[in-house]
Amino acid sequence: MKFRLIEVFKAMLEFGTVTAAAHSLKISQPAMTKLIAQLQEELDLVLFEQRGGRLVPTAEARALAGSMQRAWDGVIELKEAAREIRDMRRGQLSIVASPGIAQTLMAEFVAQFAKESQRLTINLHSQSSPRVIDWTADGQADVGIAIMLAPRAGVQVERLGSLTGVCALSALHRLASKEVIRADDLRDEAFISLAEIDGSRSRIESAFEASAVDRNILLTTPQSSVALALVTHGAGCAIIDEASARLADPSRVVIRPFVPAVEFDVYMYHPANRLPSQVQERFVRTFRQWFKTRRWDANGKRPARRKAVP
Asked: Which domains does the chain carry?
């Protein structure tokens, strides 16, 4: 049934005369009469009958009133839902990111994005970089963020930019008072190395090889956030990305700039065989801009103020 016919029925019950009902709908009286006839024909019911020169609702019309109201409410809700989806205020998004990024970059950005899209449900997951790519390729996530470049079937990938490497040290470490940590400072130091899954270890190793610095590598882990946890428990020092460094407990760990510079490339993955929703496109576009303007202070602990992204 057309929405217009439900409007006609409601108007007749509310206003009581064809003239008043037609006026409320901004149509002519003949048009109103024609629509009433069309409604009765479609339902195969006599809904209004002539009494004293006016149309009055029949018992059948009164019995139908509740169902008509529910139908009206349903159409209104449908229109509102469509408007919210069109305006990108309703829907669902599934985001997956590597642990350090999920707990820092994505947590900050998603919280901000959610405030602007209050009826949007966002699912934020934390997985290792290889699993981020798997989830995105399998369609379990709409967007994946990882510090790892691994093109594969089922995903599209773009480089967002990079995060700066910083040195994480125990607050009790002999080097904790230094403002900047240089590769040579870590000669023979107990060191927690990143496992070679994303290229970051190669860049870190190159920084030490350039100065012919040998470290005492005791532990390896594929994740900066895990390396930071090991530093917190006194297992050694580590070079980690500046986002993960924001998770440091300042009473137990100090974060210092590291020289020579080491960069951690950040990549965004998208399912290759699925058209993105308008909400997803807005999320990606806004995050891309936000990431490029994101900056931390020299210690890698606190983001500097930035201009808001529209």
From this structure: 3-86 (1.10.10.10), 90-160+265-293 (3.40.190.10), 163-264 (3.40.190.10)
